[in-house]
């Protein structure tokens, strides 16, 4: 058979096999109608939940729950769709009470398939601005409308509870974390404070804050040692003078018993002046040398005056001279004691000087170690203040969550008992059955025609016999064949009418009354105003 067909041949095939096409279409439609009728109705109950933003301005109070609403919704969804939760809901509401043979795994799978979450985000989803509103719907599908509504309400309740629990739990965990951090940093601060105190006690003589004092003390100590050494030198000179006087008791007695001459007074004044100047000037200083020269000259003059003096002093008694000698010896003893005290004080000042020099040399290393401790202490103090501020924010955020004044879920559409089943879509099944029947019937007709090897066109004769026909005699039907053809057409018409009637009856009784269906179709097509106008004209 040649595979080239023209439109006339296709039309002829359809006409010739019209009965077969209609029969197959009717049978297929009836099967689909039976399936649509036998499928159990499924009811859906859904709720819409809106994610409300924080009521108090975020510039005043900041929530400590940083996760966005979409992420939190997915977390809640995964928690609700766990095996234990779904089995509890199914048992509580007796979702599968009419199917006692179902195993827990089957119940879990059925509940999971019947539950659906759908997230709706308004605005640009890529933007992180708070103006992007978020809502989501939760839907449950069941065989009975009451069960669908009850389970949907149960899911809404669990969602609200999970959201509050999730947010308050995270806020409490945040507060607990910062509370632990504050306690830890407080312990570390106390520890390093004890270290600083112990270090300062161990190095109290080398601390940098007393460096200036120790340097001043060292200078004063050195100056004091210098003064004491000069005083000791003066005392030694005075002792030497007194000791020289003891070697000539007569001269000493004359000097002490008689009145002093002007030269003797001047000599004593110069000796006192030399002692004062020697306390602050060196032995080789020009002024000291000048004083020594004047003192030597006056001593020579005084010695000459004493040689020419009256011999009345010779009559002085030995008892007077002895008293004078004892007094000089007492003065020498006092000078010796003072010299010993001075030497002891110089030794003590030497020890203090060495200790000051040692502590001053140790101060740089002590300062570096103390600076390290202070840096650690300052760093911990900064962390402690920062964590304390965050702890206060966490406490405020926790109160915000406990009072439900932060971001929250609000049910804007409560689940209600559905009035009509959501599935199966019987009109769509019937329409699919009609299309499948007609398409399958046409395909079956063409398949039969293609398998039929009879000659139908002159071109097929030429192709088969390789000859050119002179004429083509069409098929001449007898009267009986014509009557049989009319009967077949009548039967086909009746079948079509019956199938149409069955389909309309199925729509009317199984899905929706035909008058309501027509009204909905008119509303969908927006022809209600036109129909109203036609009815008004007809009434006129």
Automatic annotation (TrEMBL):
Its membrane topology: Multi-pass membrane protein
GO molecular function, one term: protein tyrosine kinase activity
All residue ranges annotated as the Polysaccharide chain length determinant N-terminal domain in the record: 4-68
Protein name according to UniProt: Polysaccharide chain length determinant protein, PEP-CTERM locus subfamily
PANTHER family xref list: FERRIC ENTEROBACTIN TRANSPORT PROTEIN FEPE, TYROSINE-PROTEIN KINASE
Key words, A-Z: Cell membrane, Coiled coil, Membrane, Transmembrane, Transmembrane helix
InterPro entries: Bact_polysacc_biosynth/exp, LPS_length_determ_N
The UniProt record lists the keyword Signal: no
Record's subcellular location: Cell membrane
Extent of the signal sequence: none
GO CC, alphabetical: plasma membrane
Source domain of life: Bacteria
Species of provenance: Oceanicella actignis
Positions in coiled-coil regions: 175-280, 325-390
Residues annotated as transmembrane: 20-39, 428-448, 490-511
């Amino acid at each position: 058979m040649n595979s080239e067909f023209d439109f006339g041949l296709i039309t002829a095939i359809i006409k010739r096999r019209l009965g077969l096409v209609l029969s197959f279409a009717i049978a297929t439609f009836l099967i689909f109608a039976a399936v649509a009728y036998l499928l159990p109705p499924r009811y859906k109950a859904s709720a819409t939940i809106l994610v409300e933003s924080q009521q108090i301005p975020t510039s005043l109070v900041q929530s400590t729950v940083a996760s966005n609403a979409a992420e939190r919704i997915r977390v809640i969804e995964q928690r609700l769709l766990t095996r234990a939760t779904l089995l509890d809901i199914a048992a509580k509401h007796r979702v599968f009470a009419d199917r006692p043979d179902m195993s827990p795994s089957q119940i879990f799978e059925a509940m999971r398939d019947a539950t659906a979450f759908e997230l709706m985000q308004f605005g640009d989803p890529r933007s992180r601005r708070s103006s992007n509103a978020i809502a989501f719907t939760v839907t449950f599908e069941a065989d009975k409308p009451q069960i669908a509504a009850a389970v949907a309400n149960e899911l809404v309740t669990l969602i609200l509870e999970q959201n509050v629990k999730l947010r308050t739990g995270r806020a409490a965990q945040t507060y607990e974390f910062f509370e632990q951090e504050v306690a830890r940093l407080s312990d570390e601060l106390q520890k390093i404070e004890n270290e600083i105190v112990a270090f300062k006690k161990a190095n109290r003589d080398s601390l940098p804050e007393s460096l200036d004092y120790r340097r001043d003390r060292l200078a004063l100590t050195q100056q004091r040692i210098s003064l004491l050494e000069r005083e000791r030198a003066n005392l030694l000179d005075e002792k030497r003078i007194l000791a020289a006087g003891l070697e000539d008791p007569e001269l000493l007695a004359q000097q002490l018993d008689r009145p002093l001459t002007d030269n003797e007074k001047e000599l004593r004044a110069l000796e006192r002046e030399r002692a004062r100047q020697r306390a602050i000037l060196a032995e080789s200083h020009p002024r000291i040398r000048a004083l020594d020269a004047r003192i030597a000259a006056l001593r020579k003059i005084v010695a000459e005056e004493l040689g020419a003096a009256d011999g009345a002093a010779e009559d002085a008694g030995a008892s007077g001279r002895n008293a004078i000698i004892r007094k000089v010896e007492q003065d020498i003893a006092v000078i010796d004691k003072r010299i010993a005290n001075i030497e002891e004080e110089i030794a003590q000042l030497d020890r203090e000087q060495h200790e000051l020099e040692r502590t001053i040399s140790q101060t740089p290393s002590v300062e570096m170690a103390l600076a390290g401790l202070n840096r650690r202490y300052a760093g911990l103090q900064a962390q402690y203040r920062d964590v304390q501020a965050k702890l206060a924010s966490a406490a405020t955020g926790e109160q915000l969550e406990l009072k439900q004044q932060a971001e929250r879920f609000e049910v804007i559409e409560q689940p209600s008992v559905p009035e009509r089943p959501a599935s199966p879509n019987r009109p769509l099944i019937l329409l699919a059955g009609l299309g499948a029947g007609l398409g399958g019937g046409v395909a079956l007709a063409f398949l039969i025609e293609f398998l039929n090897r009879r000659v139908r066109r002159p071109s097929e004769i030429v192709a088969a016999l390789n000859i050119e026909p002179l004429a083509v005699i069409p098929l001449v039907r007898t009267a009986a064949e014509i009557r049989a053809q009319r009967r077949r057409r009548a039967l086909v018409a009746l079948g079509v009418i019956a199938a149409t009637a069955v389909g309309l009856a199925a729509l009317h009784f199984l899905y929706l009354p035909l008058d309501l269906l027509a009204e909905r179709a008119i509303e969908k097509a927006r022809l209600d105003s036109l129909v109203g106008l036609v009815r008004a004209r007809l009434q006129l």
